[in-house]
Amino acid sequence: MDWIIEIYKKSFGIVKKNRWLWVFGMVLVATSGASFSGNFQSFGNISSSFNQGSTTNSGAAPDFSIFTTVLSSIMNIFSQVPVSAYATLAISVVIAIILGMIISLVVISWAQGAAIGAINDGYNNKPVTLRSGSLYGIRSFKRVIWLMIVPGLLYFLAIIIPFIISLFVMIALWDSTLGRLIGILIFLIFLFIMILASLAISASIIWAKRITVIEGKGAYQSFKEGWVLVKTHFLKMIALGCSNCVLSCCLGITIAASIGAAIAAGIGLLSVNKQVGMILLATIGIIVLILLLLSLLFGGIYTIFNYTTWNILYRQVRSKK
Question: Residue 204 and residue 188: Cα distance in Å, rounded?
Fold first, then answer.
């Protein structure tokens, strides 16, 4: 595990030295859908209005004629709209969705290419700037898009379809005890193959993105070379990936446990000294709010740190070629 510690040290040094990498990390977090926020309309007001209506007219049967009138008016309005308008609306929605997906792919691929290229400059002790990183993203985003789409489609065709077939075979053989055992065995074999292939393809894409961004090779050639690297360095990649996951979990647990312990201490102080307890809880609330506001920055730093660990492993592997 010493080699992983060395990678972490180098990664920390590169990220600490080059602050522009934080910006690329924040872009990665923002474009990868790391956090979504949604507002949901509450039905409390609607239910309370119905309750108020029922209390005021408790002695009479409910009158639904107004609802019938409103519904018929709405139906008349929609019926007067020509079919061509609905068709135009549907086509517009489809075009908007497709354009949104294309723009999202371009931005995400640009961000990944820019981050990988900027990290490589930092690794080579070159100055990291927004412009230099952006140039990497501009030059490589088409190839990165290919790597984001095509291997996934190949994975679906080569693994998912046989897996679904094995599932149907298991269901078809479920009537007899021997058939169940055979079906379950086939299902488990395909499940194992699917998991192994998923890891191998994901690892190949990790290498391929760095090959195409740093070395400027084509997407297909980069994926081929990435697949070769996976066959020879798969265990190293699994070790680094598991280590990164453990590190992420430890950081998350530490932050959550610290906040939980501080809240518990504040609640405990409330029973002893209400004023001091309230001050502590208010302080904790302010700290949590600040952390939430800075979550994009912290997430960006940690994301670029992870990217840097893979870049360092990539450079070590390619230097042995």
Answer: 24
**DSSP of 260-282:** HHHHHHHHHHHHH-HHHHHHHHH
Neighbours of 120 (CB within 10 A): 23
Q: Please, which residues have CB within 8 angstroms of residue 314's CB and are 6 or more apart in sequence?
A: 207, 210, 214
**CA pair distance 75, 78, nearest whole angstrom:** 5
Q: How far apart are alpha carbons 100 and 92 in whole angstroms?
A: 12
Residue in this structure with the two tokens 């070769």, named with its chain if needed: 228
> Each residue of 195-224: pLDDT tens digit?
888 888 888 999 999 999 999 999 999 999
Which tops the pLDDT comparison, 281 or 131? 131
pTM of the predicted model as reported, rounded to 2 decimal places: 0.70
pLDDT digits (tens, 9 = 90+) for 2-51: 889 999 999 999 999 998 999 999 988 888 743 333 333 333 333 334 34
DSSP symbols for 3-17: HHHHHHHHHHHHHHH
CB 122 within 8 A of CB 17: yes
